[in-house]
Amino acid sequence: MANPPPSRNGMPQPEGAPAPPPPLISIIVPHYNDLAHLAQCLEHLRHQSWPAERREIIIADNNSDGGVAAVEAIAGDARVVAAREQGAGPARNAAVAAARGGILAFIDSDCFAAETWLAEGLAALERFDYVGGEVRICVPDPRRPTPAEAYEIVFAFDFRKYIEQDRFSGTGNLFVPKGVFERVGDFRNGVSEDIDWCRRANALGYRLGYAERAVVEHPARREWHELTRRWNRVIAEMFRLRREEPHWVRGWLVYTALVALSPLPHALRILRHERLPGARNKIFGLLALFGLREYRAFRMLRCFWQCRATNLSRPASIRTVE
User: Fold this and answer.
1) How far apart are alpha carbons 283 and 291 in whole angstroms?
2) Contact predicate 154/285, CB 8 Å
3) S-S: 168 plus which of 57, 88, 198, 267, CB 3.0-4.6 Å?
């Protein structure tokens, strides 16, 4: 006699017993001053293959200019909550606090989920404790990208590397059982919240996996100022997080030097990349690569020297210990 089929929790269920319903998924969407992309994000989320009655969308508005009312006007059946503390981490925390589902699916308001995004993310959770998916860059005209777009096509959102080598997943495509999230704790504000949260999860023994078939698309940044604005924020958050580590000064300076030197080996990725055909696109990509990496190194040094100057200006009794 064949063994009875397993239930979703791995325990055998009696023959003829109805299959348990699929889990309720809470889709977490932080939002700040980007209604146009949010509307597109919601449209993709409403066309998921996952049963509509087993998913909910929670938008956490982070003090946008139009307020909660403007978000509710386009939210449809999605719930909108106000996140008063400024920051992407607190916005996600506010949405999680309102979530009813046993699974949390994090996506950014400027990302567009593939139809099977939820189903593939849930399938990957059968093999890992929490998972991050694939983020693909999209551009309006792939044949003639701007320099910023050319750079992003090659280097932005390499989630496979983040997950398999660096052991963290970005929060623009992340699946976490709610019980795991509660044990790890909320996202912190003012630091690289995705790296910090995943480090805490890993330290508790939770296994991170890569769900390559759980796909979302993210529009490439088109202009130089969009790239530098993003990296100004990211560098400041990374610096605060690195300062919590022992021997952070040496580590930060070594990292800065590696960033400054990185265009040389990484130029080959641009020259060989299949999504940058033609000399024009490769030249644009190289210009953006060298310009942005040197800009990042400059900003990293600036963070360091500002910190040192502030520390040295304090009385000896209250200087921070490095």
Assistant:
1) 12
2) yes
3) 198
Terminal Cα-to-Cα distance of the chain (whole angstroms): 67
Q: How far apart are CA 234 and CA 241, in angstroms?
A: 11
**Is residue 153 within 8 Å of residue 272, measured between CB atoms?**
no
The answer on pLDDT for 53 being more than 70 is yes
Q: Is 217 helix (H, G, I), strand (E, B) or coil?
A: strand
Q: What is the pLDDT of residues 56-92, one digit of tens each?
A: 999 999 999 989 999 999 999 999 999 999 999 999 9
User: Residue length, the chain?
Assistant: 322
pTM: 0.86
Long-range pairs of 177-182 with CB within 8 A, sequence gap ≥ 24: 177/102, 177/103, 177/104, 177/125, 177/129, 177/130, 178/26, 178/96, 178/99, 178/101, 178/102, 178/103, 178/104, 179/102, 180/129, 180/130, 180/206, 181/96, 181/104
Q: How far apart are CA 263 and CA 237, in angstroms?
A: 23
**DSSP string over 152-209:** HHHHS--HHHHHHTS----TTEEEEEHHHHHHH-PPPSSS-HHHHHHHHHHHTTPPEE
- DSSP string for residues in 79-106: EEEE--S-SHHHHHHHHHHH--SSEEEE
3-state SS string for 230-246: HHHHHHHHHHHHHCCCC
Distance, in Å, from the CA atom of 179 to the CA atom of 125, rounded to the nearest integer, reads 13
Segment holding 263, helix H or strand E: helix 263-272
Residue type (1 letter), 256: T
